[in-house]
Design goal:
Chain lengths: 185, 173
């Protein structure tokens, strides 16, 4: 009989933890709140996002269409590498079929920000090249939220002004929206 | 002497008519570029209306406002021009105020708009009515084009930093 697959645990309950003895902790023991269990590949922080991009194998990557929008938008092709890497990463991670087309993300960025890394019109609510709202940022980091299968960690609002951070988050969010839409078909 | 008087009257009349013709209430020049069309529209401020359209798509999108400008041409057709990206409410209304100042400063303004002009395919019922006070109520004739900037002789308002080109006679900022 086939063994039943165990559910992947992504969070750890409140527990005691050894720490260096100090005035605040004379016993050398403290209580750590409930937190995410560090399982490789279940969440990304900004350091890991940058490391993955740097070491990603670019061979056979599907790139968004080049040169079509540069006649109109001066920054149109500047983010093609980031778009290609992260659509490929999440397509593989979620075994997406059909895969998310990098041109979809490029078109989304064009309509959201005209490829401006930090558009000024919506700073109070939506930030960065993909115009990720504060609410979406929260969902993308919530271990109990709708994107809990794969979340981000320790990403601050100001980090979204960096396309290296906001593009992978936008791809993850699009993957989630694609799942939601497919389930309704 | 009588002949001279008549000549003066004719000359004055010509100058008056010529003077009137030098400030038309609407004019448009289109420039075809490799990527899209650029339009320089010269218009009297009373033929221009602005609004912030609230896009109530879903609860989380309550902030989305789209800047819209409507221009009435000499054939009583309405050109719709919109901001290229959504804005929050405050930014959108502050843009209206800035453009209002440009409109109030002079009897003629120049607008740069992008993309090809296309007649709207929607039915008359689907189109919203734009009020131009004494010039009447009209419905948009053309599909919305993209707003680049608006200028008086002294000041320009608009953000065209994302684009490669702007209209001739306009400055990229």
């Amino acid at each position: 009989m086939a063994q039943k697959a165990r559910k992947k645990i992504t969070s750890v309950r409140e527990h005691s933890m050894r720490v260096p003895i100090s005035e605040k902790n004379p016993t050398g023991i403290t209580v750590r709140d409930r937190h995410l269990r560090r399982l490789k590949g279940t969440y990304l922080d900004s350091t890991e996002i940058k490391a993955i991009f740097k070491n990603y194998v670019h061979k056979d990557l599907a790139y968004p269409t080049k040169g079509k929008l540069t006649k109109k938008y001066k920054n149109a092709d500047n983010y093609d590498d980031i778009i290609a890497v992260w659509t490929d990463y999440f397509n593989k991670k979620f075994n997406a079929n059909p895969p998310l087309d990098p041109d979809v993300l490029k078109a989304l960025i064009s309509s959201e920000s005209d490829f401006h890394p930090d558009p000024t019109g919506n700073r109070k609510i939506a930030i960065g090249i993909a115009q990720i709202t504060k609410q979406t940022l929260k969902i993308l980091q919530d271990p109990d939220g709708e994107a809990k299968e794969f979340i981000f960690k320790n990403i601050r609002q100001k980090d979204l002004k960096d396309p290296n951070i906001s593009i992978p988050m936008a791809v993850r969010w699009l993957q989630r929206k694609k799942e939601t839409a497919t389930s309704k078909l | 002497m009588k002949h001279l008087k008549n000549s003066l009257v004719v000359l004055t009349l010509c100058l008056f008519i010529g003077g009137c013709q030098s400030t038309p209430f609407f004019g448009i020049k289109t420039f075809h570029t490799e990527s899209d069309d650029l339009h320089v529209i010269q218009v009297h401020p009373n033929r221009l209306r602005q609004k912030c359209l609230f896009l109530n798509a879903e609860a989380e999108n309550n902030w989305r406002h789209q800047y819209l400008m409507h221009i009435l041409n000499h054939k009583n057709e309405v050109l719709e021009i919109m901001g290229s990206t959504n804005q929050d409410k405050d930014t959108c209304y502050s843009q209206i105020q800035k453009i209002d100042k440009v409109l109030q400063s002079e009897g003629q303004v120049r607008i740069c708009a992008r993309d090809k002009l296309k007649i709207i395919q929607a039915t008359q019922e689907q189109k919203s009515i734009i009020q131009f006070e004494q010039l009447g109520n009209h419905k948009p004739t053309y599909e919305a084009r993209t707003f680049d900037s608006i200028c008086s002789s002294k000041k320009c308002v608009g953000d065209n930093s994302a684009w490669v080109k702007t209209c001739p006679g306009f400055v990229k900022h």
